[in-house]
Design goal:
Layout lengths: L2 H5 L3 H21 L4 E2 H11 L10 H9 L3 E8 L5 E7 L1 H26 L3
Antiparallel strand pairs: 1-3, 2-3
Helix pairs in contact: 2-5
């Protein structure tokens, strides 16, 4: 049985789907403050969520956001360990897209909360 099939219908499946739906918004939220390299962004996500939101890779989301002009490569810096670190930042179009994503997220989560809280 494929891994996708195992997760379907489980709370783990919901968690993974939620991450896929929110990763672009969270990525843009973090880089709107300052240019960062990928591992730094992942660490910041983990830190801010107190370990409750972790991702194994951000590259597919970064490539999508870069392709659509919402993020841009912001230079390469060599670390002390002689590793090249590629930095990314948000573009003006990305700030607008982030605002749209954030608005949709707020509407959806408000709607979900209303459904859950509804008493007939």
């Amino acid at each position: 049985m494929a891994n996708k099939e195992i997760k379907s219908g489980t709370s783990e499946g919901m968690k993974e789907s939620f991450k896929k739906a929110t990763v672009e918004m969270l990525l843009l939220d973090i880089v709107k403050e300052e240019s960062m390299y990928v591992y730094q962004i992942m660490s910041e996500m983990t830190k801010r969520s107190e370990g409750m939101y972790t991702v194994s890779t951000l590259y597919p989301a970064i490539y999508r956001l870069t392709k659509f002009g919402y993020m841009k490569e912001d230079g390469i810096k060599i670390s002390e360990g002689n590793r090249a670190r590629r930095f990314y930042s948000i573009t003006p179009e990305g700030k607008e897209y982030y605002g749209q994503l954030r608005n949709e997220y707020d509407l959806i989560t408000q709607g979900i909360e209303k459904i859950i809280a509804f008493k007939a």
